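Journal club prep, notes for RB
We'll compare a predicted complex against what the paper describes. Inputs for the magnesium ion case:
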Amino acid sequence: MTVQEANFTFDNSYARELDGFYVPWQGANFPAPKMLRFNRELAIELGLEPEALANDHGAAVFSGTQSPQGADPLAMAYAGHQFGGFSPQLGDGRALLIGEVIDRSGNRRDIQLKGSGRTPFSRGGDGKAVLGPVLREYLMGEAMHGLGIPTTRALAAVTTGEAVERDGYKPGAVLTRVASSHLRVGTFQFFAARGETDKVRQLADYAIARHYPELTGAKDRYLGLLQRVAAAQAALVAQWVLVGFVHGVMNTDNMTISGETIDYGPCAFLDAYDPNAVFSSIDHHGRYAYGNQPTIAQWNLARLAETLLDLINPNDSEDAIRQATNAINAFPLLYQTEWLKGMRAKLGLANDIPGDLDLANDLFSAMEGQNVDFTLLFRHLADALRGDTAPAKGLFKNPTPFEGWLDRYNRRFEKEDAVPVALAEAMDRVNPLYIPRNHMVEAALEAALQNDMEPFDKLLAAITAPFASRPGFADHAQPAPESFGPFTTFCGT
Ligand code: AMP
Ligand code: MG
C-alpha cells in the first residue's frame, strides 16, 4: 500500500488560525529513511491505515522527507525559562508539526516530528535526533500512557540512514509524536515578552477553544484558563510523583497548556525512594529533583500568569495581579488534594477520613534514607493486606519505623466498609508492577544500537500493560542490580 492510502485527513487549525505564530517549513531530505517501530494501535486510533504506513513509505513521511497530502508542516515559535533563565526565542529547532487530525473519538491531535532537520529556530543546533534518545522517548511516553497518565505518545521511530555527530557519530533517527496540542507555557511567553498583547489574546482564545471550550465567550475566561491549566498541571504532577517519575527538565517550554507530559529528555523513574533524586547530568542544583516538581510546576504557572495579566484585567493591573496571584496560590492545595486522592487509591483506602494525609506522609518519612524500592513497596503493601507482611518489611534496611506505620495502616482499615483482601485487588490496579526501570531502558537502547530490538520490544510489552503480573516478565519487576550503580541521564539532543 502507498501513503496515498494512509487516510490522512488533516484539519490544520494552528496553521489556519495562527498566522504569525510559526514558520511554514519542510523536513530534511534524508538519504535512506527506514521504519524501525510503528505504533499500529495509535495509528488506528488516529483513523490512519497502518498497513500503508508501517513501511518505508511511512518512513519517508515520518522522517519529514516526504510531506503527505493535506499536511501544512510548520515550526512553532516559543520562548521559555530554562533552569530559571529566560530565553526569548527557542521554538521548534528540530521539530515539525506536520498537521492535526481528528481521532476516532473526535479529539484533535497534533502529529509532530522530532529530529527532522534544521528550522529557522535551530540557533546553533543541527536539527537532528539520534536513535537512543528517540527510542527512550518512545518507551517513556508509552509507559506513561500505560499508567494512565496524560502524555504525548509515540507513533513512529524512523532511522534516517545518516550518521549524526554526538560525542562521536550516532545513527540518526526521527520520533513522531502525537499530542492533544503542542501549546506550551513558553508559547505564551514568546508573544508576551515582545509586548504583543493582541497575539497573547489570540493564542489564549485558541487554547480555550481547543482545550477548555467550556470557557469560550466567558467574561473571566483568561483567569479561567489560568485556573484550568493550574488544575491540569496539579493533577499531572501529582500523578508523576505517585509513580516515582522525575521529568528532569521542567522548563516552561516543556510544560503544556493541555496538562499532558511532554519532552522526555533526561527523565527517569525512581528505583529507591529519594525526595532529592536527580538523574539529569545538567541539573547540578537539583532544581528539577523528584520532590521539587510541585514547587517548580507552581513557579512555571506563575510565569504563565504573568503573560495573561493584560488580559485578566486590561484596566487595572493591580486587580489583575491580585486575581492571578490567588490562582497561583491555590496550586499547593490543588496539588495536595490530587496527591492524597492518588495516595488513597495506592493504599487501598476507599473512604475519606481525617488523618489520611498524615498516614500517607508518614509512610514516606518511614521510607527516607532506607533505599526502599518505590514501586515494589506499594505492590508489597497489597501483599501485606493479603496476610504476608514479610516482602514489604524486607525492603527496609531498618524496618522498625515502617512496622509502626504498618500497625496504624492496619487499624485504618477498621474505618473501611470492605475487607482488606478485597481492597488489595484494587491496589494492584493502580500500583504498577512494571515501570521502565533505568537499567532495563539502558539495556534496551544498547541492544537497539547493535540492531537487536528484542529487549526494547519486551520492555515495551511490559510497560504498556504495567499492572497485571504476567509470566516471563519477572526480571522487569526487579530493581537494578547493585552493579548498575548510580544512574545519570543526558539530554541527548
Ligand atoms: P529541549 O531541551 O528538547 O526541550 O529543547 C530546548 C530547545 O532547544 C528547543 O527550542 C529545541 O528545539 C532546541 N533544540 C534541542 N536540540 C536541538 C538540535 N539538535 N538542533 C536544533 N535545536 C535543538
Ligand atoms: Mg522542549
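Talking point for the session: The chain has a mean pLDDT of 97.
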